[in-house]
Design goal:
Blueprint (H helix, E strand, L loop, with lengths): L1 H8 L2 E2 L5 H22 L10 H24 L5 E2 H23 L6 H53 L4 E5 L5 E6 L3 E7 L2 E8 L2 E8 L2 H7 L5 E5 L2 E4 L3 E6 L4 E5 L2 E8 L1 H10 L8
Antiparallel strand pairs: 1-2, 3-4, 5-6, 5-9, 6-7, 8-9, 10-11, 11-12
Helix pairs in contact: 2-3, 2-5, 3-4, 4-5
Length: about 280
Amino acid sequence: MRKRIEAILRQEIPYLDSAGSKLLLIGFISLYSFIFINIYAPYNINKWGENYYWEFILIGFSVLIFTHFILRTIFGPKRFKIYSLLPWGLMEMGLMAIIFEIAYSPPMRTLQEQISEFLLTFWQIGLVVVVPYTLFLWYAQIKQKLSSFKEEIQYNIKNTNTEGNSELLIFNGENNKVVLAIKYNQLLYIKSAGNYLELFYFTGEKINKELIRMSFKELDEIISDPKVIRVHRSYMVNTVYINSAKKTKKGYALNIQYIPEEKIPVSFGYKTEFEKILQPKKMSH
């Protein structure tokens, strides 16, 4: 349970990286706050006159512009994680509360009254800001997942229709008998296992593993698809099914479609050829 909570807190939030996303967030919070204040009139604002509505919105808007475009550029993280966004949001609400207190609170006689008034203002700001903040992040997350899902579908359709090689890869055993025959567009990757090769391929939605007595040297003589390449002394991959390539000190770490838990290394000796072959592809680094 503890590890799960830690994993959740360490999740990255890429939805607030671009200037457009930041402006969209600030605009959504401002619009929501304006509607909320007009309907519920918190802080007894209705006693002060409707002209204060816009002043409250402008203060909140200015604080968010300052924190996201100036403060974050200087001090903030390049990309938020959940554990870093939480204190950042509290800081923003605290800054709004301080400005509200300076601008609108009546003079207080005691420090205790000032603290009490500040905490009340902070709590009321939280009631206004937390909901649109959360809704925006939820919306952005769903939008990104739908976009990724759509791209993956289009990528799979493209691979199936154009990139996938439907020719057979045939493995012969003793007396030249066929041990295994699969289409190249079914092959995911091959791993060396001593005097054997472990082939990972799919049929329908099922991932299969086959052990073939053969060396990579012998395999090189029968491979005819240029998209199936050697990336390590122990690995050969079908580049059609590479989801991502993350740069490492020695080369890359590959994530393979259908087997996301498997990380396949690209060693230094194969790095240059790997980069040449995958140059037209869009890979994540």
